[in-house]
Amino acid sequence: MSYTFEKSKAAFARAQEVIPGGVNSPVRAFKAVGEAPVFVKHGEGAHITDIDGQTYVDMVCSWGPLILGHRHPAVVAAIQEALEHGTTFGMPTELEIEMAALICELIPSVEMVRMVSSGTEATMSALRLARGYTGRDLIVKFEGCYHGHADHLLINAGSGAMTFGVPSSPGVPADVAKETLVAKYNDLASVRALFEEHPAEIAAVIVEPIPGNMGLIMPEEGFLEGLREITSEYGAVLIFDEVISGFRASAGGAQKVFGVMPDLTCLGKIIGGGLPVGAFGGKREIMAHLSPSGPVYQAGTLSGNPLAMSAGFAALSVLKNEQPYDALAAKGAALADGLRALAEKHGVAVTVNQFGSLLTVFFTDRPVHCYADATTSDTAKFATFFSTMLANGVHLPPSQFECWFLSTAHSQEDLDKVLAAADLAFAEVSKL
Predict the structure, then answer these.
(1) What's the fold here for domain 6-67+324-429?
(2) 431 flagged as catalytic
């Protein structure tokens, strides 16, 4: 029985009167899939329930933070206990120390860490710190990698991978965009060419070690190691944006999986236990340049918020103690294999990229190793696939170019439901 969305449609109509586009983050509008968004009322474990009273297997998990599922008992208890003491103080708490110490213990390269309130804040602040530390202005990012919505990060590659960036959003000044150089992911030659052209001007290279915002893409062998070598050679800061991969790839992030140590690491999502949070940290020598120890300014009224610290500490403690990563990877591999088999059954060309609890189904017949590969995906086929999945009780990211997220709460029954819905969805796609 297909789902209906009358109450969600009515809510969306009301929302558009008072919220730009009806949502507070663009992808939530479902525009890429030609649907109206589902409005959620409740979450429990691996499931969400909408305001029409319909329940879905949730493969978004709030875009990654909910690796333990919705309303995990340890996280809920921690928030409730913290709430008894207050919501915010604008003053230090001991919990901030405990949280910072736990992150330093688990993330191999982090010796000191500063808490902020979002992933965008983390990347923005890490780049400011890198510029202040090196005395240089230029930064290198990669085509298709998303690092938040700060002006100098909303940059496209233009006509080639080795060019000055151009703004990808109105409101981003061209002069700001010129400070950002764009390279091709998994292409060390494009990175080295930029450094050869600007040997003493590049402050930092920022990269998702496991990109998740052009769909899931894996680093090829030697790529991250090569970035480490090049940045060290030229005296630039290597920044890993582990907002997605931090505590999802492993308890030590992607850097522990691949054995490559950045100078700075940006974190978010999971470290808040479902509440808004971000962090950046790294070498003591670099972090010492941050105010009030050093001259590079950064501040935030709600940084180190006690509710977020409590939720995050509880979530990280569960991950540290239970180490669920092998089990999550087994779920992810089984789901990916099942999806490939169903696509083949219905004669639909797909590439399924999967790592641990992350996966993306690309509607393309070619391997996906970079942004250009990802853009060969048939977004119309994805839209049909998405709509059929939604109507059959599975909530996917409403964009071809995003990751599916698994949690420890997903059961075999949940995965079976996802595959049963996918069987119907691939059948619909095969008709296009």
Answers:
(1) Aspartate Aminotransferase, domain 1 (3.90.1150)
(2) no
